[in-house]
């Protein structure tokens, strides 16, 4: 038995299939016995009203049935029950029951029994009132300063407060800015009503303000009395909570400070009567209910707080004093006094578990057994200590600050791309310029090494490539279970892609509940975007790749394209892109050179990349380890800058279209306001061709919007071509200077810092900033220049430049310094110390130009 568990004193299970909420429980001397002992009143959404008088069971006979005084089935659902003085001609306590469309007040009377069956209790209806609006909750109190009697206030689902003085309806008021009902409470110290609105703020309305407020909004209900000459209803004060409130309570203990308590979804708030916050407690759990009760310490408030972890906690202000475990989640909690025990905690669950418990502990009679004492082997302890210290040193050197977990331990992913094209093709565009568009099937196999409940699989490919399905919702996987997912990839645009690599991303939760992401890649075949063709004799762009091995038969390394090739010697091979230019590969018969030529500079990228990769695979299979490839020609920077200028011009056009659309939209709204003013005028004036101007402006806006949309499509295509050209330039630079894979990765990240353009940030400014950083750091002319650049902080805000001259100058300078022996590295920045005299040369925010 746990030490911190609520001690059961009495419990009962109420019905089967019934539902309960926080308003379905109250305690009080409802039968007016005069002893001061409380009874428990419970109402359910099924309309069942029960009254209990618990007592400790001294024998195994009886049980909850002996404690039940009354059980009545009412016709309507019970939303809330309260005990108070609701009859004007009597000082006795009565029971108020709130139904969705009815308010009923009952009298509970008991008759002493003369036989073994005990006392008999009866439920008598004193009065009831049929509501015109659906009720949500209610509160009661001495409204307006009355004494010895309680009035009722009911909040409807549409935001109306309905006031009842004893058995008569007095008036109703709509709350301003109402959307959804919140908790409602009455503060007798200030004679005001408190609620939390849909704006997530605590609002206070004085009873006097409600009584004299305007009744115009309630005239839609013919059965409600009308009042005139009122004022607009405004709250006395408000306080923004920032979250929805679950419950609201105003304790009225004699020795407690004036407080208003609000239970939020994540915080507990305490205010004084003027709306000033006294204290706030951030909760580390999801609360379900709370109840303030009397504290023995002056100026403090005790709280019972239930949460969704089946725990009942006791707070004194913001200090946790005790915590007790329950067997259910409480939705309502009260404190009651019974003959055998005072201060009993009464809690109710949503499915009808009623529990009377108390806080306390049970003594534990467990004693720790004695351990046999034995002499320690100091040599063995010292050897174990050295071993542990050695392990700690190794882990400290190799591990990061946060330990890395291998997602592959939970799930293994294998992707397989089919060697044949689909028949029939799954492409959305069946043919481009007379050439059929193929599709290829990709199969992804998943094997779970642990239990995975919820997992999702996402497929990402670069435009204009597309897949038949981008997202898969996977069923729960057991240990060792496998799942196979298939989809088809195809070309979905009229221009070649910049990358044939696709990403497979799987998000799932580990058995411990930690979110994990696993990523895998697949490579689509070149035959997906091009077909074999006849070679072109004269082209505009040419690239020559040198090797140190004898010429290779091109048909042997491009077997899928050699079947219908015209050149039987294998010295020439041509690729016709489905939506691009023709690329021809020529192998020299006498030298060790290969020429790639085409009329499109960007379209050569995929062929050159594939050629270099297949050379590496071919010679590695032959066991040749000293294979080298190089590029000895001049870098085609001017051809590359043509793609850059075309992309930049489309970005400028997009900005112009945006500005023109903004101007036309402002003009369109101004004309609309003019026309609306004319139409609202009681003596309409001539339109003066405003309608014609409105139609013309609308037509211009639609034409500009169409042009902007078309320019956006061209901009996406231009960015893909810039990516292809940049990849080709990086490859040529690496072949030219023999860059290592790490240096090539740095260069590629510098020239391609973004994967797509955005209206706020584009490729030109990002690339210029990255290239400038390399020129000022690892590619600087001297250590002094590098130290000066490291001493500078900040820089200009990135934005669309005026032109591309600065960018082209920096890229040219980058290639020149790499060609003169500059090496790309990220470690040189940390190796250069900035002298104090150098730090004073550069002020923060300056830029090196």
Tell me the total number of β-strands.
Answer: 44
Q: State Rg.
A: 40 Å
What count of structural domains?
4
Outline the low-pLDDT stretches.
216-230, 828-849
Kindly report the CATH topology of the largest domain: Methylamine Dehydrogenase, Chain H
Shape: elongated
Largest sheet properties:
6 strands, antiparallel
Strand order of the largest sheet: 39-41-42-43-40-44
CATH architecture annotation name of the largest domain: 7 Propeller
- Our count of helices gives 13
CATH homology superfamily name of the largest domain: YVTN repeat-like/Quinoprotein amine dehydrogenase
Whole-Å distance between the termini? 75 Å
What structural class should be given to the helix and strand makeup? alpha+beta
Average pLDDT figure: 83
Tell me roughly what share of residues is in helical segments. Answer: 10-25%
CATH class of the largest domain: Mainly Beta
Strand content: 25-35%
Question: Top keywords for this entry?
Answer:
disordered C terminus; TATA-Binding Protein; alpha+beta; Methylamine Dehydrogenase, Chain H; elongated; 4-stranded antiparallel β-sheet; 6-stranded antiparallel β-sheet; Immunoglobulin-like; 31% strand
